Amino acid sequence: MAEKPQPVRVLYCGVCGLPAEYCEFGPDFEKCKPWLIQNTPDLYPDLLKEAGAKDADKVSDQLQSASISGGSSKPKEEEVKRLPGGKIKKKEKQEVVIEKMTRNKRKCITTVKGLELFGVKLSDASKKLGKKFATGASVTKGPTEKEQIDVQGDIFYDIVEFITDTWPDVPESAIFFIEDGKKVPAV
Amino acid sequence: MFKKFSSEEVSAQNQVKASVQRKIRQSIAEEYPGLEPVLDDLLPKKSPLIVAKCPNHLNLVLVNNVPLFFNIRDGPYMPTLRLLHQYPDVMKKLQVDRGAIRFVLSGANIMCPGLTSPGGALDDKVEAETPVAIMAEGKQHALAIGFTKMSAKDIRTVNKGIGVDNMHYLNDGLWKMERLD
Ligand SMILES: [Zn+2]
Q1: In this structure, are strands A96-102 and A175-179 parallel, antiparallel, or unpaired?
Q2: At a CB cut-off of 8 Å and minimum separation 6, what does A186 contact?
Q3: What was the pLDDT predicted at A112?
Q4: DSSP annotation of A9
Q5: Which long-range contacts (CB under 8 A, 24 or more apart) does B120-123 make?
Q6: Which of residues 121-150 of A touch B (CB under 8 A)?
Q7: What's the pTM?
C-alpha cells in the first residue's frame, strides 16, 4: 500500500477566505491587505512597499532581538509609526496564533505560529508541547515558509495556559485563535 | 455550475446504503488512486455517507456535513477544492495563464488559448472528459476543478474555443458551503 500522503495546509485569508495568494483576485483586495501584511508579508512584497515599510524580515528580526534582550518586554501591540507622507503603519504584531485543522471528525492538528517572535526556540517548544500533551509535535514550514509547530490532536483550549506558564515572556493578550477563519483573542 | 448555489438548492439528503457507499468509495479510489491511502480517513467506513441531491442532476457526497465530492448523473466523482487543496497531487493538472484567472474565478469555462499561452501548461496525458485541477501561473494552489472537453493534445492543436468546462471554482457556492447543516 502506498504511503499515506500528509494533507497540505493552505493558508486561507482571514478576511475573504480564499487561499491568500488569490486575494488579489478576490472580492475586495483592499480589505484583505492589512491581514496579508500581518500574516503573510512575503506573499505580496509590494504591499509592504506600498505601506512604506522596510524589509519584512528586518522588522521581525528587530522584534526578535528586542524580545530576547528586553526580557519580559511587553508586546508592542499598538505601536504605530508615522512614516514620511503621514501614513501610519502598524508594526508586525508580536503574537502567537493557534489554529486547529480538522482532518476528519476525530483527528486534527493544532498549529502554533509566532512563538519565535518571543525568543522561544521552536525545536525546544515543540518537544515541550509534545511531552505536555503526550502527543506528536514537530516543527514544520508553513505555507509562507515560516516555521511553525504542529501538534497532533485538539489541544486548543489547554494550550494557552501552558504557553503562558512555560514562557512568561508571552503575554496572554498576545495569543490568538483562528476560529472559522477569523482571528479571535484567546482571552 | 455552482455559481448560484446554496443549501436551499439541496432537495434531499440521504444516507446511502452500505452497497452504494462501497460503490462510491470504489469509483473514487479508481479515479484518484493517490487518495486511496487516506480514503479511510476521508470516508470512514463507520461514518454514514450522505448523498445530497441538487438540481441539474448534481450529487454531493458528504461526510459529517462536509462536502467532499460531487458528480453529475453517473459521471466521475470530483473532489471539492477544499479537499483538493489538501491532496493536490491526486488530480492531473492543467495551468491557465495569469490573464485567465479572473475569468475562471467569475465562472467562465476555460478557453484553449489561456492554456496554450506561455503562462499556461498542459499535461499531454490528459484525455477528453477527464476531471482536472486547474492551476494558475504564479500560484501554488488550484483555483478550479475542470472537466476536459478535449484532450490536452487537441487543446494544443485546435487552440480555440472552450477546452475545459469549469465545474467548481474558488468562491462559488460550493466553495462557500463549507458545511451543510
Ligand atoms: Zn483575502
Answers
A1: parallel
A2: A98, A160, A172, A175, A176, A177
A3: 83
A4: P
A5: B120/B94, B120/B95, B120/B96, B121/B93, B121/B94, B121/B95, B122/B94, B122/B95, B122/B152, B122/B155, B122/B156, B123/B92, B123/B93, B123/B94, B123/B152
A6: 143
A7: 0.64
Per-residue pLDDT of B54-97, as tens digits, reads 888 999 999 999 999 999 999 999 999 999 999 999 999 999 99
At how many degrees (to 10) do helices A122-132 and A159-166 cross?
130
Q: Are A52 and A89 in contact (CB under 8 A)?
A: yes
Using the predicted structure, report yes or no on whether residue A85 has a pLDDT greater than 70: no
Locate cell 493534445: which residue?
B153
Stated length of chain B: 181
Closest CA to A113 of A97, A92, A95: A97
Query: What does the alpha-carbon distance between residue A87 and residue A51 come to, in Å, rounded to a whole number?
Result: 8
Residue with cell 476525530: A106
CA distance A85 to chain B (A): 33
Share the mean pLDDT of chain A. 73
**Separation of CA A38 and ligand 1 centre (Å):** 12
The rounded Å distance from CA A92 to ligand 1 centre is 18
Contacts of A68 (CB under 8 A, 6+ apart): A119
| Nearest partner of A26 among B176, B152, B82, judged by Cα | B176
